[in-house]
């Protein structure tokens, strides 16, 4: 697997401070690695930084710029489509802010020999979360426990976006069935892959939060996270408002 053509998908929104250094780190890991940045037209000019860097790595650095901020999950799905149209054998997804340490990629490459999907977990012996507020830690734990109760996927971490997939796992995805756009896409992808009988593995990772003000989770976002999990499990019952069929007129 170490000599398999690998696509590392990085969703970005306002990551101009981080993206160049991260891309350089990843490309230096292995000659078979390509990076795809999926940027949602970041106002800080992340896309421009990436296009500039493409001149240095014309073969190995790819960029998709979407027209507006439309969620991390959908950005990664866009990356999957890009990779499936080309001959990549392995796919990674990871955050741009160095919360996911490039040096941990080696762990995934070891583990993916025996699995179809490998998830970087913050909740295994050997895992660690650095620099998270009490509120943030507890929300994450609660959200994970809730998702696990409903979805019953054999994983300890449903929402950490540091993962490695074999091509066959990405090919098995039903993209049409995913209407979520944010973090819950991670749960939905794991749920689908588990249902299809793919082998899910985990490796412990050290999650280092960026130094930036307190992340504000609004009540609306918390409700949405909760509903989205129910929607994955029972799509017909917890429908999206926008997806309702129009009422017939008499
Ligand atoms: N393309 C795209 N990327 C996004 C979007 N929202 C977040 N991201 C990226 O997804 C990754 C995770 O987002 P973060 O903002 O770090 O989310 P977080 O780790 O929960 O929160 P922080 O504590 O602020 O780090 C980062 O690489 C972001 O740049 C989005 O709407 N579109
Ligand atoms: Mg982050």
Can you characterise this structure?
With 250 residues, this protein is α/β, with parallel strands linked by helices. Helix content is 36%, strand content 17%. The strands form 2 sheets. The protein has a 7-stranded mixed β-sheet, with helices on both faces. Helix 2 (46-54) links the parallel strand 2 (33-39) and strand 3. The longest helix is centred in the middle third of the chain and has 18 residues, at 134-151. It is globular. The mean pLDDT is 91. It binds guanosine-5'-triphosphate and magnesium ion (MG).
Short description:
It contains 8 helices and 9 strands. With 250 residues, it is of the alpha/beta class.
Strand content: 15-25%
- Walk across the major sheet and give the strand order: 3-2-1-4-7-5-8
The general outline is globular
By DSSP (H or I, 4+ residues per run), the number of helices equals 8
Number of strands: 9
Q: Could you tell me the radius of gyration in angstroms?
A: 18 Å
Structural class: alpha/beta
Largest sheet: 7 strands, mixed
Helix content: 25-40%
Q: Point out poorly predicted stretches.
A: none
- The residue-averaged pLDDT reads 91
Task: List the ions, cofactors and other small molecules found in this model.
Answer: guanosine-5'-triphosphate, magnesium ion
In N-to-C order, the SSE pattern is: EHEHEHEHEEHEHHEEH
Alpha-carbon distance between the two ends: 61 Å
List the helices and strands and how they pair.
Elements: E1 6-12, H1 19-29, E2 33-39, H2 46-54, E3 61-65, H3 72-84, E4 90-93, H4 105-111, E5 117-121, E6 128-130, H5 134-151, E7 163-166, H6 167-171, H7 184-195, E8 200-204, E9 206-208, H8 219-233
Parallel strand pairs: 1-2, 1-4, 2-3, 5-8, 6-9
Antiparallel strand pairs: 4-7, 5-7
Bound molecules: guanosine-5'-triphosphate and magnesium ion.
């Amino acid at each position: 697997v170490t000599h398999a053509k690998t696509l590392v998908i990085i969703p970005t929104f306002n990551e101009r401070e981080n993206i160049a250094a991260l891309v350089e780190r990843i490309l230096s890991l292995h000659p078979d690695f390509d990076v795809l940045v999926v940027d949602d037209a970041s106002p800080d000019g992340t896309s421009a930084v990436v296009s500039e860097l493409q001149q240095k790595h014309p073969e190995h650095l790819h960029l998709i710029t979407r027209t507006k901020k439309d969620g991390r999950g959908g950005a990664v799905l866009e990356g999957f489509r890009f990779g499936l149209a080309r001959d990549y054998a392995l796919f990674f997804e990871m955050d741009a802010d160095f919360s996911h340490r490039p040096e941990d990629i080696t762990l995934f490459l070891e583990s993916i020999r025996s699995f179809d999907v490998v998830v970087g977990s913050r909740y295994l012996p050997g895992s660690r979360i650095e620099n998270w507020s009490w509120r943030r830690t507890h929300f994450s734990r609660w959200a994970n426990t809730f998702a696990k109760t409903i979805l019953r996927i054999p994983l300890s971490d449903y929402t950490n976006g540091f993962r490695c997939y074999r091509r066959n796992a990405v090919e098995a995805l039903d993209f049409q069935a995913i209407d979520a756009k944010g973090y819950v896409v991670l749960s939905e992808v794991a749920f689908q892959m588990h249902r299809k009988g793919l082998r899910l593995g985990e490796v412990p990772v050290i999650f280092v939060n960026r130094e930036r003000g307190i992340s504000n989770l609004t009540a609306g976002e918390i409700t949405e996270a909760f509903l989205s999990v129910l929607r994955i499990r029972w799509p017909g019952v917890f429908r999206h408002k926008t997806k309702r069929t129009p009422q017939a007129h008499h």
